[in-house]
């Protein structure tokens, strides 16, 4: 989906076996038996940041995404120059609150991180699901032993996020083995779980094993190169110039687009703007787009692919029914999301994102995505199930519940 709201009924996390304080280390977060009670989260945040509630983290760190002045000073002293974070880096960045010591491949305490929910770079006024996945992967990567790469992650969106509150990420180090290690990440706001992810990591040496079996789904052929396709700004300009749009719809699209901050990735759709937003008839449940990777190392690319993989995927479900993002009666929300990384991704690489839907039933749709390098190598695969509803009345702007 282009950037769907994760519309779900809010549920408070219940139960919990965690407690603040551990063997002389005040404020160390114990591994919970079930959910993390709000008072435990508050105890840690008060100890580490001097705040009384999660919302105060935004003020304690200098706003919704800029980070603290102390943190900026540390960056400057380390690099010798003032580092300027890009919009994408700000969105993906998580701040370490607590890193637990590891003994025997696991810990008795949880690693704790916080992440912004600022709308900068977000293509919707609500929390974008790709941001949650990317930040969770970023947090988990900070707890790994050297030489590990993510080969898969499985995520569930449990309730909508609040863009006015920071996320609190807890990372549980389930196992560190010789070849594989696993992490469980839970994102919370006001003590309630809104998102969970299980991720598995493999030794980097295994990725290049000469005896490994290899085959893949064939890369689509005859696709125009990304340089020949319009940018997102040009894409919408072409849409607004189309004579088939009524003045009412044209004005509505212009207002919505100009009110949104830019999406922080260069994504170029192969389909025409008018076909994507205003289909006149049912279409094949398939679409293609190019996505460009930024500079950086493997963990950065894993997070960036995760961020991009939630964009446009679920809307593929609606194409055979002649409806999509412009349909005011269409409701879409991510329910779960899985990513499988097959080959390393290069910095500054253009990836072809092939999206297709194989099923829709029970107000749910299933979509699959495939990221190919320009050389045709299948870099990673994505599967997403989401809520897809066509309601009787057009949207009123209110957040729907599942």
Automatic annotation (TrEMBL):
The keyword Repressor does not apply. The keyword Hydrolase applies. Residues 293-387 form the Acyl-CoA thioesterase 2 C-terminal domain. It comes from the Eukaryota. Coiled coil: none annotated. One of its GO terms (biological process) is acyl-CoA metabolic process. InterPro entries: Acyl-CoA_hotdog (IPR042171), Acyl_CoA_thio (IPR003703), HotDog_dom_sf (IPR029069), TesB_ACOT8-like_N (IPR049449), TesB_C (IPR025652). Residues 124-201 form the Acyl-CoA thioesterase-like N-terminal HotDog domain. GO terms for molecular function: fatty acyl-CoA hydrolase activity. Gene3D superfamilies: Acyl-CoA thioesterase, double hotdog domain (2.40.160.210). Residues 1-34, 57-83 are annotated as: Disordered. Pfam families: 4HBT_3, Acyl_CoA_thio. Keywords: Hydrolase. PANTHER family: ACYL-COA THIOESTERASE, ACYL-COENZYME A THIOESTERASE 8. Belongs to the C/M/P thioester hydrolase family. This is Acyl-CoA thioesterase. It comes from Prasinoderma singulare. The lineage of its organism: Eukaryota, Viridiplantae, Prasinodermophyta, Prasinodermophyceae, Prasinodermales.
């Amino acid at each position: 989906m282009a950037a769907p709201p994760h519309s779900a009924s809010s549920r408070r996390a219940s139960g919990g076996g965690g407690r603040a304080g551990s063997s002389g280390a005040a404020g160390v977060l114990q591994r919970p038996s079930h959910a993390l009670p709000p008072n435990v989260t508050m105890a840690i945040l008060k100890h580490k940041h001097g705040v009384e509630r999660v919302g105060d983290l935004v003020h304690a760190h200098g706003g919704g995404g800029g980070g603290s002045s102390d943190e900026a000073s540390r960056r400057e002293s380390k690099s010798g120059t003032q580092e300027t974070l890009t919009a994408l880096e700000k969105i993906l960045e998580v701040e370490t609150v607590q890193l637990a010591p590891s003994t025997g491949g696991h810990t008795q305490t949880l690693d704790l991180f916080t992440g912004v929910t600022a709308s900068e770079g977000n293509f919707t006024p609500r929390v974008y699901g790709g941001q949650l996945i990317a930040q969770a992967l970023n947090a988990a990567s900070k707890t790994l032993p050297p030489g590990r790469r993510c080969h898969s992650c499985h995520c569930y969106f449990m309730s909508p996020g609040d863009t006015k509150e920071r996320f609190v990420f807890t990372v549980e180090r389930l196992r560190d083995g010789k070849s594989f290690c696993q992490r469980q990440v839970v994102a919370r706001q006001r003590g309630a779980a809104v998102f969970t992810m299980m991720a598995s990591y493999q030794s980097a040496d295994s990725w290049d094993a000469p005896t490994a079996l290899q085959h893949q789904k064939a890369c689509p052929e005859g696709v125009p190169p990304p340089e020949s396709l319009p940018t997102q700004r040009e894409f919408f300009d072409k849409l607004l110039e189309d004579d088939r749009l009524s003045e009412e719809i044209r004005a509505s699209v212009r207002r919505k687009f100009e009110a949104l901050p830019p999406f922080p990735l260069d994504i170029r759709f192969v389909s025409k703007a008018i076909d994507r937003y205003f289909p006149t008839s049912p279409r094949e449940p398939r679409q293609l787009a190019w996505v460009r990777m930024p500079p950086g190392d493997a963990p950065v690319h894993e997070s960036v692919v995760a961020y991009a993989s939630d964009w446009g995927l679920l809307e593929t479900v609606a194409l055979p029914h002649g409806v999509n993002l412009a349909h005011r009666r269409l409701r879409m929300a991510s329910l779960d999301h899985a990513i499988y990384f097959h080959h390393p991704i290069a910095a500054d690489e253009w990836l072809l994102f092939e999206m297709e839907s194989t099923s829709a039933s029970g107000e749910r749709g299933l979509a699959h995505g495939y990221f190919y390098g320009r050389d045709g190598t299948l870099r990673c695969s994505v599967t997403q199930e989401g809520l897809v509803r066509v309601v009787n009345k057009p949207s009123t702007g209110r957040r729907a519940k599942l």
